Amino acid sequence: MVASVIHHDPAVITPTILGCALRCGEKTIGNRLNAGLIPKPDERRHGNMKLWRVSTIQQWDRSIANRISAIIEVLGGWA
Prior knowledge:
A three-stranded antiparallel beta sheet has the order 1-3-2. It is built from four helices and three strands. The protein is an alpha+beta fold. The protein has one domain (11-75).
């Protein structure tokens, strides 16, 4: 019997982090999201807080995912 591997990929990318990677503000993130230029968030928490998984951003744009990884590293990791 082969054990299945569960890949833990929590939704941790906030609009603020995504905005830093895209070099724009949260209002622009919202506008781009409404225009279909950014993938829909994977989750919403605390009311309407939008959160994306790393895998979602990687599938959409690997260079943006790399920028996000660099931002998180500077901030001290994924905690």
